[in-house]
Amino acid sequence: MIPLIEFKDLYKLYPMGDTVVHAVDGISMTINEGEFVAIVGQSGSGKSTCMNIIGCLDVPTHGSYYLGGKDVSQMNDNELAEIRNKMIGFVFQQYNLLAKLNVVENVEVSMMYAGMHKAERRARALEVLERVGLSDKLKNLPKQLSGGQQQRVSIARALAGKPKLLLCDEPTGALDSKTGKEVLELLKEIHSEGNTVLLITHDNAIAAKADRIIRLEDGKVIYDGPAKSAPKMISVEDGGDA
Amino acid sequence: MSLRQSFLMAIKNIMSSKVRSLLTMLGIIIGVAAVIVIVGLGNGMETYMTDSFKSMGTNLLTVSIRGRGSSRSVSDEDMYQLVLDNPQYFDGVSPTVSYSGTVKIGTESLSSSVSGVSEDYIYMKDYKIAQGRDLSYMDMENRSKVCIVGNYIASEYFVGSPVGKEIKIGGNTFSIVGVMEEEADSTEGSTDDCVYIPYTTAARLSYTGSISSYTFAVKSEDTVTESKNIIEDELYDIFGSDSAYSVISLSEILDVMSQMIDILVAVLAGIAAISLVVGGIGIMNIMLVSVTERTREIGIRKALGAKQKHIMRQFVIEAATTSALGGVLGIAVGYGLSSVATSVIVSALEVDMKVSPSIGSVILACGISVAIGIIFGYLPAKKAAKLNPIDALRYE
After folding, report:
1. Which residues of B133-167 are buried (b: 16+ CB within 10 A; e: fewer)?
2. Which of A49, A58, A151, B39 is placed for a possible disulfide with A23 were both Cys, Cβ 3.0 to 4.6 Å?
3. What is the domain extent for residue A128?
4. Domain limits for position B126
5. Does the reported pTM lie above 0.95?
6. Do B390 and A115 touch (CB under 8 A)?
């Protein structure tokens, strides 16, 4: 089986004054379809850079990145846009909903760029909004919703285009712990329905909800394995991080 | 994403900040309105002039003889012969002798103009006789003291028909044989305030006794220039110098004046068009600000799969829609100002001139405003399309 995500000796370098920062320093890893993985690390560990590359928002300096068997590391801006549109559903910490559009319209945006017809788009949007339990808020603007509701809209938006990968960047970071838990439960359910979910977080408690943890430090993978055996080795240093 | 969706999105964005959009459009509105009003004024001026020249007769050539040395004038026979020799060009000729005697009816003095003309003159001028008869060939031969009067004199100074009544011109008693139909508005000093007498009579009563002016009627306005040349050749043969006479054609003057108005309008419209460019720069300015303000939106859209062309299209269409909307408002304002200008001109100058914007100028102004939107929207749109999605998403 072809892995969904495959990093082959991947580097991302940034020039910073006289020195070069290795944000991603030779990472190799694979993630298969249907997995629920958390990439965890403190700020500066390279997890954001990793996320940008996985999300096809950025390309590596060298090394290869195969997404669904396709090498995306050499693609240009427009090709990346198309890959993002078809393969990836983003869930951001700050929800990133478009303020002037209502809930349904927000969910429809990516399908609009995919060139889907209006009726088809609307039907799919209603379907995913039903799935996240927001069928009664269709015409509301984002600012009229609570944080948890907004995040659920953004999850619906991410699911709308039937992407291969749900990429969640600190999805609970802006929520209180109770709503955060609910959103995580929702993500777990979505995973159990057969979706691949990738969680980017600095919070070990949240990472522990995933099946597999990849822990980064200084741009390198320092742990990659089941979530159950992970907490022991990282709980000590991570105490004050949240 | 279809053009229609981009367009609807643009409308939504414009409507969501009405004051700013209106201010953005202001330059375009002013520019378009100015172009429309100026072109309308030009059209009005031209129509007004053409009409007033036409009423004086664009098929007429006026010949003035100044004379040279001993030969002070040409004989009227020569001029009649010229018309007979060139029937394909000329319809007729009338000597015109202006006579400066005072006109008196009873004890009242009038300021009416008195001209001595031939029996063809009324026909050549396309005037009509309402009552009585025209001047006749016999009146010329006999140097009769008869006259026809304009409608102003007939209606102001006579009760009932003035035909057969008497009028005094320069101390001589003339009898009125005909009344002309109303030509202008029957006011003092207008075409209707006039007296025509036989030119032979006028020539005898005037001090010089000579005829210094002729009016030729040409067959067609298209051959005015050729007809003018024939007369000039003949007069040159008589005087041997081209400074002894002048031949003026109203239609030629009209052409020159129309041309001058056209140039004037073009220059003024060009100046107004500069404000369109300034308006375009205003749009570019606001669009650049808008791109910065909406950096995050652009980042989100790009993350969701918008390609450069999608972002590009969104902003170009927004700019074009803004300026097109400005154009439409400008047309409305332009038409409004035109009708205001018309009533101001009519009431203040008492000139019956209509400021009439042309459809051509409206289409042009509209086209230019859309083009300006696209041209000046391009740069901000390019900037938006080129934004790096990571930076854009991080933008606060």
Report:
1. ebbeeebbeebbbbbbbbbbbbebbbeeebbebeb
2. A49
3. 5-234
4. 98-194
5. no
6. no
